[in-house]
Amino acid sequence: MTDLLPESGSEEMLHDQNEALDPLADAEDGVVKNRAKVGSARPSSLLYTYGPGAIMDLPGFSVMPAGLDDWEPIWKRRPFIPSIIEPRLLNVVRLHLGPQVDGLRPFPWQAKKGAMSKEGDDLGIPSRVFPQLFRCTGCDFLGPLPRFSYTNTHPFRPDLAQFTHKNCPGRGRQRAGSTGRKRESPAVPAQHLLTCANGHLDEFPYTLWVHRGGKCPKAELPDLKMRDANVGKSVGSTILCASCGASRGMAEAQGGVGRDKLPKKCRGRHPHLNAFDPECDARPALIMMGASNLWFASTQSIIVMPRTDAEEKEALADRLRVELGVEKVQKYADDLGILRDVAEGKLDLTDVTDQDLAAAVADVLAPADSEAERQEKLAAWDPVDLLVPEWRYLQKPSLFPQQQNSSGLMVTEMQRGPELHQRIGRVVAVNQMKKINAVLGFTRLDEMDRVNDLVSRLVKLTRNGKPTWVPATEDRGEGIFLQLDTAAVDGWEQGILASPLWDAHREAHRRNFSRRFSETAKLVDPDTRLPAPRYWLLHSLSHALIREMAMSSGYGAASLTERIYGWSASPQREAAAGLLICTTASDSEGTLGGLVALSEPARLQGLVVSALRRASRCSSDPVCAMRTPSDPEDFLHGAACHCCSFASETSCEKANRFLDRRFLLNLPTATGDTVPGFFGSVDAL
Questions:
Q1: Which of 81, 53, 90, 79 is nearest to 444 (CA)?
Q2: In sequence order, what are the beta bridge partners of 143?
Q3: Please, how many CA atoms are within 13 Å of residue 472, restricted to the half-sphere of its CB?
Q4: Are the C-beta atoms of residues 84 and 104 closer than 8 Å to each other?
Q5: pLDDT digit string (tens) for 48-105?
Q6: Is-contact 332 320, C-beta < 8 A?
Q7: Which helix (DSSP H) or strand (DSSP E) does residue 507 occupy?
Q8: Across the strands, what pairs with 286?
Q9: What is the DSSP code (8-state) at residue 161?
Q10: Phi (first) and psi of residue 104, to 5 degrees
Q11: Closest CA to 427 of 595, 580, 593, 542
């Protein structure tokens, strides 16, 4: 890296253009004998757990999926780049990332016909080794990547790939008569990192740390050792300088006091982009490599609904933009016949009239909103806007028999069982569904409530900050939709809003919001982000049903996900009170029907009763049942815990926040006043 900085005010990142990342080209050209593949992951995990900028732990070391700039050499190996066309989701992506986004792409992957076949060997997610400081397990040597040897030669065992320290002398003194033969010891990544609220991530400056901000008096580039001490008061690692003998424990870097001893200025490093921002005004903080707050995905998802005529025309414009490009569309805009010839083999325009084609061309060439207009729309955008079309479609059972399977959605209005609780108004079996998820970026240290809260905190996926596409997945599966009696929900909600329990939850939410590490809390009124009591009700019911359905559907609880439709009436939309529990898979054509079978009246009514009865008690009661936040507590749940209500992070859309069993059933509170549960007393079920 050069020490030169760009002129003041420049937004250009510091990046060495000669450091291109193309591991497959290296393998093909015989530059290295090692194999390019180091691991595998399912599309869903790459979306929510190990996306660009995250650290993926492998058996021998760890890697970080690269930014989208480095994916282009992978895609260029194929004459055709697949895309996912869904205008409703693409419009939201453009709203957040800019009008230059042309489309959504699946991850570069291809199914193999057999275990020994070669399909898809030219595809994969480019990644960089990170952290790039390693510790030898034999002698505790701590050094950069070039000081270690890399091996990955087994064609079918990428899990054997590892870095080793050759000529490792081992620990301690050699015994008399020893031959002194050195060995080769495996190396592991150094766990300590620095990060900041702007999403930068960097190696920990061990050399500066052990010398307390100065230089080693004995060597310009001294060798270091990292020794673990797990006894007495020396919990954690100790860094030692082999040249001057200086030592310092890593425990000093922890907490608020330790943060004052760290560098005061962040270097602005983005390892996934292999680049640096010219400036960063945030202070770095210590973080461990496996910390849960190291990476939070920012995604948006929709369930694909039957398209209207207007949406079909918009989808045609998106296909023209993706397959032909804006330049070709503009070149042949005046001659639709030639445009059809150019599109032949890429797009089927046989059933498209000239009028519709001309309208699509006009859509492609229409000027985009100005940046000021886009920012204004983004500030007014609400994530609920993605759910409203789905809710409205589910309110029209007369359309269900007319549905075509082209959208991937097949739903059936089910009869209510005679013993199903009267406050559950409708049951809809979702026989087939398609859910599309798109990546917008990610954050570090804390998750934003909404992606449009403070867009500057959303870490960019490309070096210029203007991606022309984003990764997306298509998930297919099944589910059950339950709708509560909206009139009953409205009346119950009014009573809850006036209760002391709701006052306690609201105050806890305000404290939680004000203590957040991010800048978001300074810009947003916390009361506007507290979900209404109906959301708490639906969310708590959803978790109770997920736990119960996992015992009968054939799917594990972690495979079931929720989608909550819970909002009050406003001038823009009608009130909603429903929930969808579904299971989807991104690497198959669908699921096996075990979940949708539970929508049969006889099975569902017993399942609901059983779920509510289980929710009425917890092995941590009465502590759990009476849990109410009070100052200075700021947890965002009430009568809920891992024993009774919490679900896996793959299932819950709110990270196990906004849950309280007292909103479901009449349970005691800390003050002694019973809050009216929506479903009443457990004895009346």
A1: 53
A2: 134
A3: 24
A4: yes
A5: 889 999 999 999 999 999 999 999 888 888 878 888 888 889 989 998 998 899 889 9
A6: no
A7: helix 500-514
A8: 194
A9: -
A10: -110, 135
A11: 580
Q: Which two tokens stand for residue 598?
A: 């539970």
pLDDT in tens, 383-437: 888 899 899 989 988 777 766 656 678 889 999 988 899 999 999 999 988 999 9
Go through 57-82 and write b for each residue having 16 or more CB atoms within 10 A of its CB, e for each that does not: ebebbbbbbbbbbbbeebeeeeeeee
Mean pLDDT, the chain, whole residue set: 84
Alpha helices in 9-143 (DSSP H): 23-28, 43-48, 72-75, 87-97
Neighbours of 412 (CB within 10 A): 15
Name the residue among 58, 72, 79 with its Cα closest to residue 21. Answer: 72
The residue written with tokens 């502590």 in the block is 623
Sign of the four-CA dihedral 154, 155, 156, 162: positive
Identify whether 131 is preceded by a cis peptide bond (ω within 30 of 0).
Answer: yes
Q: What is the pTM of this model?
A: 0.84
Pair of tokens at residue 362: 């006009």
Residue of 459, 461, 438 whose CA lies nearest to 448: 459
**Where do we find the tokens 């330790």?**
258
Other residues' Cβ atoms within 10 Å of the Cβ of residue 552 = 15
- Tracing tokens 């933009």 back to the chain, one arrives at 321
Q: Which tokens go with 424?
A: 């559950």
CB 147 within 8 A of CB 135: no
Q: Using only the alpha carbons of the chain, give its radius of gyration.
A: 28
Tokens of 553: 């559907």
Which parts of the chain sit beneath pLDDT 70?
Answer: 1-11, 18, 23-34, 115-116, 172-181, 229-235, 311, 402-407, 449-456, 517-522, 587-590, 669-672
Cβ contact 20:81 at 8 Å? no
